[in-house]
Write a structure and sequence with these properties.
The structure is a homodimer. In chain A, a hairpin with a 2-residue loop joins strand 8 and strand 9. Helix content of chain A is 28%, strand content 23%. In chain A, 52% of the residues are buried. By secondary structure, chain A is an alpha/beta fold. Chain A has two domains: 100 residues, Immunoglobulins (Immunoglobulin-like); 241 residues, 3-Layer(aba) Sandwich (Rossmann fold). Chain A is globular, with a radius of gyration of 23 Å. At the A-B interface, helix 1, helix 2, strand 7, strand 8 and strand 9 of A face helix 1, helix 2, strand 7, strand 8 and strand 9 of B.
């Protein structure tokens, strides 16, 4: 067999992998690279759409979140950004009023609730922290745990590098998602594995287990991972106390199945938005369970309806803070729509004499902040 | 706080999750459901594209793989299929000659090599086997193993339901991907978790560990999961013997880190295309390692160049088969472009008196067949 024949067979093997991808490989506009990160950290995104009248780039790296793209003579629409700061950025295309599309030239998409977004990373400080580096990597597992509602529920568990090889026990961070999210959210958009691998490798965070639950008690798993089938996530969340009630059985299951240090001073709970609400509630309802609490843009507001577990709020907070938590950390962006509610909550804590640490960032109710909060929070845990 | 206010805050919390998804939620064509599976198992796919001149559906559920969609008065393009047999189906849209797009109304996509495809499942026999059911689920882990090339390499490991709770030891199936694939391929497109969970729950397959390696020695992990960053997969594979050489260290690592029955009669190796080639090679080079071998559409052809490990093929096959394997299973579709090469390989085995089981299906070099082969192969393993 000649070299040419060997090569042709290799090509055929690849192209033959799937009829659809074969077609795609042959028909896709050749040589189109998108996104392309240039040496000055500007990015060029491109879309081949020869007959389109208008292509709008919707993204988080231009002011206002949208910009018109420009068509060149080859039918390729382009946009070149300003040099960008190190970050993880997302984008989609809006073509002639169609529903927004991910970039067909990139296979890097992440799902946030029910929306797919193309993304890229500009290396540097944050971008490098959110990217896999040449360090020891932890294990990421999707496990099923039978909890107190009698159902098996899916969780994502990060164990740090070395866990399998050692016999030591580890502290645990319980990390909760927001409304519409699920046990995949912190992994996909929150970059948990990359952040924890990198912080631990640099000695900035203690090696710890991170447990990511599904905070919607109606569902046992993220869309597509349970017998519910291929549903579309939308307003899925649990703010009726049902999630909080099952949480002790989650902790119990984790302590049984992992080598944990099953003590409050080696347990943290944190979450974003609804997950911040859950963290506040759970740490208050079970004050002997967690010595570290993180509220990231927490959905804290005092409802008379629908939020049953707010009974005796003051008394329960006083009970929780009577044995001063190691860290009660409240973080929010100055532009967050929940800012005022968090001010009110801090005023209540102040009135009750409950000590907390407050961290105010710029920006709003967005993953960009939650990744930063996780990065900062993780470095403050379990150092005693 | 009134009910209305509570509701508005919940909506705001969801919409506020991300600027992009907020925009998407507000701007997306309302009420567009795609795909929609009707009661007769026909499917309707829809795309809102009011200004498009032509929308072609590329898919694996119409003859020829493509069909024109029809525009209705609302600017929605539709296609309704014939009633479909139970299966997992993939599709993409080709709009006015643009690069093929996944369905913006669905968040269910899978990556095959570098191509994203929208997918849906028609329940019934195969479709239900490929879907999560209300059964006990195994754990799926992404782990990093230091192997004989001195690098940490990423693997996907399925452990069956009950593994964590028991002290028993399990047999292991090593399951290898094809050219361009990686350690994610069998999970995403191959539906390993669903197939194994369901077969084991029904008592049709023995509980077993499934280890999915990355057969491209140049890369240590799938795109985006290592310090190589966000590269585009294409001709990535290893057919130079380097993968085969490191395989004993993979088995050793698995035996050290999991409760395996570390005996050849409790080990199987199988793979598709290039992974079938690897399975043939590895089982031949290390004849005392595996008692079960599965070649799925194996990329078997006798090269004089580039396939170094074909030295002494006949002698090594005779050595391997002198201690008759429990099962040596060769499966291929009658329409596979590697069909003739597999005929030649079987003729060689016949000449040498090597006993195997041959399974010929319809169809070609495609995941649809590989899921079927896995289903059949898994049920024949470790039953003695």
């Amino acid at each position: 067999m000649t070299k040419l024949r060997t090569l042709l067979m290799l090509v055929a093997m690849l192209v033959g992998l799937n009829t659809l991808s074969a077609q795609q490989n042959l028909w896709q506009k050749k040589g189109l690279t998108s996104p392309e990160i240039l040496s000055d950290n500007s990015v060029v995104v491109r879309l081949y759409a020869p007959q389109a009248q208008s292509v709008v780039l919707k993204c988080d790296f231009v002011d206002g979140g949208r910009v018109d793209m420009t068509r060149n003579d080859d039918g390729v629409w382009e946009y070149r950004s300003e040099p960008l700061a190190s970050e993880l950025y997302c984008y989609r295309f809006s073509i002639d009023g169609m529903a927004d599309m991910v970039d067909p030239s990139s296979s890097y998409v992440m799902r946030d609730v029910g929306t797919l977004m193309s993304y890229f990373i500009i290396a540097g400080d944050k971008g490098s922290l959110y990217s896999p580096q040449a360090v020891k990597h932890g294990t990421l597992s999707r496990v099923w745990a039978k909890v107190s509602d009698g159902r098996e529920r899916r969780m994502t568990v990060y164990t740090p590098a070395g866990y399998e090889q050692s016999k030591r026990k580890y502290p645990v961070l319980y990390l909760l998602h927001g409304m519409g999210g699920d046990e995949e959210a912190w992994v996909a958009t929150g970059r948990v594995q990359e952040i924890m691998d990198n912080l631990i490798a640099e000695g900035k965070a203690e090696p710890m287990i991170v447990v990511m639950t599904n905070g919607c008690t109606k569902h046992v798993a993220a869309p597509g991972y349970s017998e519910e089938g291929m549903w579309s996530p939308y307003m899925s969340g649990s703010m009726d106390g049902s999630f909080e009630k099952m949480f002790p059985s989650v902790v119990e299951w984790v302590d049984e199945h992992y080598r944990t240090i099953a003590k409050p001073e080696m347990r943290a709970i944190a979450g974003l938005s609804m997950g911040g609400f859950h963290s506040m509630q759970i740490s208050k309802e079970y004050p002997a369970m967690f010595d570290y609490v993180g509220l990231f843009s927490a959905a804290i507001f005092r409802g008379e309806e629908g939020v049953a577990t707010y009974d005796d709020l003051e008394a329960k907070l006083e009970r929780q803070f009577s044995d001063k938590p190691q860290l009660y950390w409240i973080a929010i962006g100055s532009g967050d729509f929940l800012y005022d509610e968090n001010v009110k909550y801090r005023e209540l804590l102040d009135k009750l004499g409950c000590e907390y640490v407050y961290r105010e960032s710029t920006g709003g109710h967005e993953w960009r902040n939650w990744r930063i909060y996780l990065t900062e929070f993780a470095q403050m845990l379990f150092k005693k």
